[in-house]
Amino acid sequence: MTTGDHPSWPRRDEPAPITEARGSKPSSVKARRWVVDWWAGGGGKWGRVMRLMTLPLEHGFRVGANLRNRLYDSGILPLQMAPIPVISVGNLTVGGSGKTPFSAWLVQELRSRGQRPALVARGYGQDEMVLHRQWNPDCLVLAQEDRAYGAWKASKKGATVVVLDDGFQHRRLARDLDIVLVACSSPSRVTRLPRGPYREDFSAVTRAGVVVVTQKGKTDSTLEMEMALDPYLREPPVKVCFSPKGWTDLKGSRSAAPEGEYLAVCGIGEPDGFSRILTETTGRQGELLSFPDHHDYTWADVVEIANRRKGRALVTTEKDAVKLHAFRDDLPDLRVLHLQVEFLAGEERLWAHVEAVLGPGGAGQG
């Protein structure tokens, strides 16, 4: 990453004085925090009541999603074929598996192997689109809700292969290969939306050509998740972890790792995973200040961060740095941890599947 402001980063025109906002956090943020805690089994008495009340909704979501999949599997719902190969990177849950950095890594590797890859995503999280453009500045990155049109557009712009970020449930676009990521820290017992984080059951991985079990730290155990997935796997899962690559400040300049105590700030799908990486990297357990996934930071949040730090170092993720960059002058010593994909098992098997779809032929299965 080069130093200085990145042109894709948002800006805040006139910083307000730090004493301006000392009010309470917006209710929507509190609600989203409560939902994440509720999914994990929290919420007390009202949480238990809500789990009972939403049981019919979970059942309805399961029936509807399963019916939709059967309609695609039977050919009643038609698939749209792309003129170039399509590789989808997706997951079974709402966030937390690492599909965005993994899909960016795949784009980088495809380019290094002579392909002209394009990254197509829905663009729901603008922070992720900014990251894709930072990680792969020389590749085509398209935010397109209609992924079939995005794939067609990418082919017209000269791409030789499309990588879909978060494409597993987007069945309408045919794909040559589905890569499904499952975080080893995800619950081994499936609870579907809205009662839990799962979009689909474990049986859905039978549609995938490659299943990747992801770890946030090298010491994370994958055994429980592997046992839950085993009945549906055709071959052993690929295993990756996201290991530290280096540190920068919010302006992109290289920085040293934090010394002493620290406050970790993040708004990602699996904040505890970020905390574990920091503990492994620094050798120290810090305090975690967690916001909901894709959180848009406000001046009130910056005040909360400043009040909570108490002289400690501040650290955050690359994803959060995109949003916090607007406050770079107020948080000049905030350190950003950069991660990289590191394979623990199965890299050769993954590439055997990828290379098999890059030869002659059109799009494959739905």
Keywords:
single chain, 366 residues, alpha/beta, Rossmann fold, 3 domains, twelve-stranded mixed beta sheet, 11 helices, 34% helix, 19% strand, disordered C terminus
Uncertain runs with pLDDT below 50, 5 residues or more? 1-24, 361-365
CATH superfamily of the largest domain: P-loop containing nucleotide triphosphate hydrolases
| Count of helical regions | 11
Helix/strand order, N-terminal first: HHHEHEHEHEEEHEEEHEHEHEH
Question: What is the CATH architecture annotation of the largest domain?
Answer: 3-Layer(aba) Sandwich
pLDDT average, as an integer? 89
Q: Strand percentage, roughly?
A: 15-25%
Global outline: globular
CATH fold descriptor of the largest domain: Rossmann fold
Category by helix and strand content: alpha/beta
Please give the largest β-sheet.
12 strands, mixed
Question: What is the number of strand segments?
Answer: 12
Question: How would you summarize this macromolecular structure in one to three sentences?
Answer:
The protein is α/β, with parallel strands linked by helices and 366 residues long. The protein is 34% helix and 19% strand. Strands 1, 2, 3, 4, 5, 6, 7, 8, 9, 10, 11 and 12 form a twelve-stranded mixed sheet that branches.
